[in-house]
Amino acid sequence: MDKRSTEGVGIFAQHYPRVAAIITSRDKDKTNAMTVAWHTPVSYDPPLFAIAIAPKRYSYQLISSSKEFAVNFMPAARAEEVAAVGGSGGGDMDKLRSFRLSSDRPAKTLVPILHAAYAAYECRLVEDRPCGDHRLLIGEIVAVHWQKNAFMEDGSPDLARINPLLYIGNEHYVSTEGCTIRTIERELCIGRLRA
């Protein structure tokens, strides 16, 4: 294998693929949606989820003011909407209306929940901290929405039924269609690799 090394990060895409998500926000009568790939769970108890957003983004202004946001996990069939949302500014247009993104009623917040999302988290902002050129927004998950048939009995995504949209950097997206699910028992692997 031909490996390379460099000082610094260069194009900074080695950490992809990442599940593409649309963050929705609302403050008073203003709503917005933005595409993110930089998001992650950070705690089970309490249930916390983090997103990284540049402070110049319109969504950051809305979330900072309202203290609420939603994370909408999108299927590959909605790749064009995800790309359009990510490529346009919310201060210039109503993205939900412009891209015909219908929403469901939220359970605990006032934030739009995208109807096309196979799962969504409603979050209340509990921490907003600077991280380099971004802000790390940590939200407590106060409600979860999901398509029941999109998940297996154990709660794992059923990739035979849904096709999550993955972002691989530089405006490239890929789907999980045709992939093979392999269950690997950790304890057996530990025993085999230690032998």
Keywords:
7-stranded antiparallel β-sheet, 3-stranded antiparallel β-sheet, 4 helices, alpha+beta, 37% strand, 15% helix, 195 residues
What is the C-alpha radius of gyration, as a whole number of Å?
18 Å
Question: What structural category arises from helix and sheet content?
Answer: alpha+beta
Number of strands: 12
* SSE series: EEEEEHEHHEEEEEEH
Distance between the termini: 26 Å
Q: What's the assembly state of these chains?
A: single chain
* Envelope shape: globular
Total helical segments:
4
**Helical proportion?**
10-25%
Largest beta-sheet characterization: 7 strands, antiparallel
Q: Order of strands side by side in the largest beta sheet?
A: 3-2-6-9-10-5-4
Overall mean pLDDT: 88
The fraction of residues in strands falls at 35-45%
Point out poorly predicted stretches: none
Question: SSE layout and pairings?
Answer:
Blueprint: E1 18-19, E2 21-27, E3 30-36, E4 39-43, E5 48-53, H1 58-66, E6 68-73, H2 79-86, H3 95-98, E7 103-104, E8 113-114, E9 119-131, E10 134-146, E11 165-169, E12 172-175, H4 186-194
Antiparallel strand pairs: 1-11, 2-3, 2-6, 4-5, 5-10, 6-9, 7-8, 9-10, 11-12
Task: Tell me about this structure.
With 195 residues, the chain is an alpha+beta fold. Helices cover 15% and strands 37% of the residues. The chain has helices spanning 58-66, 79-86, 95-98, 186-194; strands spanning 18-19, 21-27, 30-36, 39-43, 48-53, 68-73, 103-104, 113-114, 119-131, 134-146, 165-169, 172-175. The strands form three sheets. The protein has a seven-stranded antiparallel beta sheet with strand order 3-2-6-9-10-5-4. Strands 1-11-12 form a three-stranded antiparallel beta sheet, with no helix packed on it. A two-stranded antiparallel ribbon has the order 7-8. The protein is globular and about 60 Å long. The relative contact order is 0.19.
